[in-house]
Design the sequence.
């Protein structure tokens, strides 16, 4: 690209734009088998409150969870308008051809309400224990790329399809059924090879706050934009979907740790500065109350803020204690081909150091490139709170690993490796 510029005219590595996508708000539902009725009631509440989307984790090796596709099909019948997606599907345990037919069938039955989140699969030993292939990290990325080709071919081809592949292939099956609408393929990714796959092949990117804070997401977004342009795509072709969590009763300065009005401001900033357009809340505690607050207060407020900014009118005043967005780890610090854990099967906050500072709306687009700049200073009490929250989250992960080992669901070596990676 001459002059180091993208097809969309922006300088390579410049700050992310507002892609102009319509905002959507959803909920990441827990799916414990012991509380199946509660899961359905929460889905119906989300629809009644006007949310747009329901995401469900996919960990088939965890017997405490309802099967994701069975649950999504049931929720499609128990609701009328809200959209549904696996957040994200464990592709090594979902054969690509069957996943294509399952997603298309559910989309037809639900009258076009299905999107397809895909992941390469992180927990390698439990996947192999369930009869899935035993893959390396790099092989899992290659397998996901082949799976996307298989899925798209079965959705769009007019003739029998033959696709060679090491992990997923087609040897002349008839295509179909065609989905009721163009199902979006949304990929959960963090590391270089998965980001490249996302930029080249996906319709959406689905990071989670626990593994990609707003600071890190800013850098990953720049990388996706650069890779998409290199692949001949327009970066705005890739919708940005963010799994978020926080507290409405918080009183600190952390990201999503304040009343709903501050949530709305912070999410609007992510839409305007980073191009995120879909926010999926994962709440703990009183989930119904969190869903109601998110739908009734955060979503309409954030939409209004974004619309105001887009229309060029003065935006609502930001709280006086806004803090500039700080930096995060550099892309080069991420190991190529290594995945970051999907949601671990527990309902609650994912691992990862919480954000100590929250973004401040930058109204002049020329200043947006500073989003990924050097970290702003933090005072000691916020550091201490962040460290405490991080350790508490890691203890939750360790507890689950111990429980899975005790129940025979997880190999002790895999648990030890998981805990070492945390450390």
Sequence:
């Amino acid at each position: 690209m001459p002059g180091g510029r993208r097809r969309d005219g922006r300088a390579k590595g410049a700050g992310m734009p507002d892609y102009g996508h319509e905002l959507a708000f959803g909920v990441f539902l827990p799916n414990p088998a012991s509380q199946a009725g509660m899961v359905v009631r929460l889905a119906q509440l989300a629809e009644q409150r006007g949310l747009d989307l329901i995401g469900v984790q996919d960990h088939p090796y965890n017997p405490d969870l309802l099967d994701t596709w069975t649950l999504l099909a049931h929720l499609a019948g128990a609701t009328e308008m809200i959209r549904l997606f696996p957040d994200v599907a464990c592709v090594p345990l979902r054969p690509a051809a069957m996943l294509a037919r399952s997603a298309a069938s559910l989309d037809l039955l639900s009258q076009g309400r299905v999107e397809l989140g895909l992941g390469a699969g992180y927990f390698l030993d439990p996947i192999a224990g369930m009869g899935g292939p035993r893959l390396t990290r790099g092989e899992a990325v290659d397998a996901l790329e082949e799976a996307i080709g298989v899925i798209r071919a079965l959705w769009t081809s007019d003739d029998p399809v033959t696709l060679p592949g090491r992990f997923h292939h087609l040897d002349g099956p008839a295509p179909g059924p065609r989905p009721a609408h163009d199902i979006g393929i949304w990929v959960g990714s963090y590391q270089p090879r998965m980001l490249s796959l996302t930029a080249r092949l996906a319709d959406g990117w689905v990071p989670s706050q626990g593994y990609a804070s707003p600071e890190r997401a800013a850098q990953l977004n720049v990388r996706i934009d650069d890779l998409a342009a290199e692949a001949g795509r327009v970066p705005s072709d890739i919708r940005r979907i963010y799994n978020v969590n926080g507290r409405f009763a918080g009183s600190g300065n952390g990201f999503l740790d304040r009343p709903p009005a501050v949530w709305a401001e912070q999410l609007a900033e992510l839409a305007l500065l980073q191009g995120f357009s879909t926010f999926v809340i994962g709440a703990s505690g009183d989930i119904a109350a969190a869903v109601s607050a998110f739908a009734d207060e955060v979503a309409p407020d954030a939409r209004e803020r974004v619309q105001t900014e887009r229309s060029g009118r003065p935006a609502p005043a930001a709280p006086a204690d806004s803090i500039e967005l700080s930096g995060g780890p550099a892309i080069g610090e991420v190991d190529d081909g290594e995945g970051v854990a999907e949601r671990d099967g527990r309902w609650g906050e994912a691992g990862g150091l919480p954000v100590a500072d929250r973004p401040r709306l930058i109204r002049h687009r020329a200043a947006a490139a500073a989003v990924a700049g050097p970290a702003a200073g933090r005072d000691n009490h916020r550091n201490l709170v962040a460290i405490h929250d991080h350790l508490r989250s890691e203890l939750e992960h360790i507890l689950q690993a111990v429980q899975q080992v005790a129940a025979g669901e997880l190999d002790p070596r895999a648990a030890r490796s998981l805990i070492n990676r945390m450390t």
